[in-house]
Design brief:
about 140 residues, mainly alpha, two-stranded antiparallel sheet, 4 strands
């Protein structure tokens, strides 16, 4: 599965180009689908000068930030969830009258898990808007 920073959509599988906008992913393709580097002017296999347009280049810092924004909160949330489960079981066995507070805690954890799953989507949309502004600024 690959994310296109040009049209802000995901293509399933290991595609060479986006199924929605037709841009290639960090490569240039000739009409015979030979893979060429992003900065190629002609195909290295057949010599064709008709190469695809790759999606906008994503800054390296954005890739690292996306990785950290998905990994670190997820790990913290997993540790907190494990502790909450142990806490829940311990209190359920010894003090059953606190079940309502523990259920509210579990609902809060579920909401945090949902929020964590939305971080990559939000961040990708922000990068898409930034690249679109940069591209529109270069055209004028």
């Amino acid at each position: 599965m690959k994310y296109c920073y040009n049209c802000n959509r995901v293509t399933i599988g290991e595609p060479l180009f986006c199924n929605f906008c037709g841009r290639s992913y960090d490569i240039k393709l000739c009409p015979r689908l030979h893979v060429n580097p992003r900065n190629a002017e002609a195909c290295s296999h057949c010599g064709s000068r008709e190469l695809s347009v790759p999606q906008p280049k994503v800054p390296f810092w954005a890739t690292i930030l996306l990785f950290l924004m998905t990994l670190v909160p997820g790990l913290l949330l997993a540790v907190f969830s494990m502790a909450a489960i142990v806490f829940f079981l311990q209190y359920l066995l010894h003090k059953p009258d606190t079940v309502l507070a523990l259920v509210i805690l579990q609902i809060l954890l579920g909401t945090l898990w949902w929020g964590w799953s939305q971080i990559p989507l939000y961040f990708r949309e922000a990068i898409h808007k930034m690249l679109k502004r940069r591209r529109d600024g270069e055209k004028t």
